Amino acid sequence: MADNGMDRRDFMKSTAAGFGGFFFLSSNEIKPEETTKKPLKEQKIIYRTLGKTGIKLPAINMGVMNSSNPNLVRAALNSGMVLLDTATTYQRGTNEAMIGEVIKERPRDSYVIATKAHPPENRSTGLYTKEATEEDYQKKIDASLKNLGLDYIDIYHHHGASVRESVLYEPVMKALEKAKKAGKIRFIGISTHKNEPEVIQAAVDSKFYDVILTTYNFKQKHQVEIRETIAKAAAAGMGVIVMKAMGGVQLQERAEKPVEPVPALKWVLQDSNVHTIIAGFTTFDQMNLDLSVMENPTLTQSEKAHLQWAAFQTGLYCQGCGQCLMQCPEELPIPDLMRAYMYVYGYRNLSHSQDLLLSLNLPPRVCGDCAECPVKCSIGFNVSRKIQDVIRLRDVPAEFIA
Amino acid sequence: MKKFRAVQKACFLFFSFLLIGWMLGNGASLWASGGEGGAYSFPEMAGWKQSGEIQIYSRTNLYDYINGGADLYLKYDFQELKVAEYENDRKASVTIEVYRHETPVHAFGIYSQERLGNANYLEVGAQGYSEKGVLNFLAADCYVKMSSVDVGPEEREVLLAFAKKVVENLGGKGSLPSILSSFPREGEKKNSEKFIAREFLGYAFFHSAFTADYELSGKKFKLFLIEGTDQKDCRNMVQEYLKHTENLQNKVEEGRYQLKDPYHGGMDFYWKGNYIWGALDLDDETLRSMVLKLFAEGLENKKINNDNRNKPSLPQAAGY
Question: What pTM, to 2 d.p., does this model score?
Answer without folding.
Answer: 0.77
